[in-house]
Design a protein that fits this description.
about 500 residues; alpha/beta; Alpha-Beta Plaits; Rossmann fold; 3 domains; 9-stranded mixed sheet; 21 helices; 15 strands; about 15% strand; RsmB/NOL1/NOP2-like_CS; RsmB-like_ferredoxin; transferase; rRNA (cytosine-C5-)-methyltransferase activity; RNA binding
Amino acid sequence: MGRKLDPTNKVKRGPGKKARKQQGAETELAKFLTDGQYEVLLSPNELLPIERAAKKDKKLKEALDLESDEDDDEEEDDEEEQKSDAEMDEDDTIQTNTDEGERFRLPGAEESEMEGVTPLDLKSIHQRIKDNIDVLCNFSTKREPGKDRTEYISLLKKDLCTYYSYNSFLMEKFMDLFPLSELVDFLEANEIHRPVTIRTNTLKTRRRDLAQALINRGVNLDPLGKWSKVGLVIYDSSVPIGATPEYLAGQYMLQGASSFLPVMALSPQEGELVLDMSSAPGGKTTYIAQLMRNTGVIVANDANADRLKSVVGNIHRLGVTNTVVSNYDGRQFPKVMGGFDRVLLDAPCSGTGVIAKDPAVKTSKDEADIRRSAHLQKELILAAIDSVNAESSTGGYLVYCTCSITVEENECVVDYALKKRNVKLVPTGLDFGTEGFTRFRERKFHPSLKLSRRFYPHSHNMDGFFVAKLKKFSNVIPTAAAGKGNRKTTPQKLQRQRQL
């Protein structure tokens, strides 16, 4: 019986084609490395998590490109790769020192001074991060006698900034936002790009037909998830996904999964008057149009005239016929036009949820940027509320969203709007995501903020995002002269009168 027909008779016949190519490449590379460097290179356990993630991603892409083969040597190579991936996955988990008797010790003054002159290598810093987090998670039993928790936190913050290349301000924000056990997962997720996703344009085709057409062109894809009826996730493509005949014909839009969410929360109805206050580049606007089946009227506004060019281009390509494009500062929009059934405000923000797309955020954002964004967002959300018609028979809704995860740009802004206008928070209709904060450190927000939703890259495999949906129940704008007590009770009275 031949070897292929008898799985019990496994005879090793030497390296296959892939193994021989790899050995040849390693032989050439060894000419330029010392013995010590070469040994480190060959050991997968010596790779940093960021390097392992890149290597693993590369292997996955190569595996998708290769066609299935009956060659036994190829099968053996695949088994070895799977074992290597499994070993790397095990090594990715937070581990402590193997010697239980060896406790993590904070560096002394002399060691800290030496690090200032000769910084530690990234591998040593990564190990210290893992050990430090282990101590902080079991502080009462593993701390060094006489050492305070703040000393461990200070060292951890410094090491995380060095290892992941963040500035001190932003790292402190994230350390306040996430538990230590979750923090590293978030930072690691920011080192890997999110999956490429597309939205089917149901004005021109169905998802199943689009998927079949793309598969025939060599695109490897899957439905995005049960929560979306129009999304597809692209794993691999033999053709540029932004230049296929289907794309040029307007059958789909390249769009991040997280930007589906605010439109789904808005839930526009046919025949309504809808405002997209910050519409560029047009992904959300065209999604609204397809949900409305090209009925009613959409006003696609953006303050940046140059960015509106992409909105116009996408509107034409996707066959949208119910949209008017405008170029106004959103803060002035109530003076231009009002009476909308629904308004979508995707507010300009610091971009702390899309670091994987824009790594410059790691070092470019500071306290002034967050304050500046929050101030603009508060002005925009009031203008958006004033543009909504509370008397609408079908609507009266506003959806506020950002691609930031800071509390100052999300819960603080919505809480401000609840105090300044006659609005209330309502469920978003999204059946996944993390509840918004009702209390954060010394801040306390309105209890209904738990109805808002947060999305994180490490939890939901999409860009960091915040979505809140508000219902306007009166067109009356509370005046600043009203007393504090009146501001609290007036919206409640108006709501009771409306119910009667």
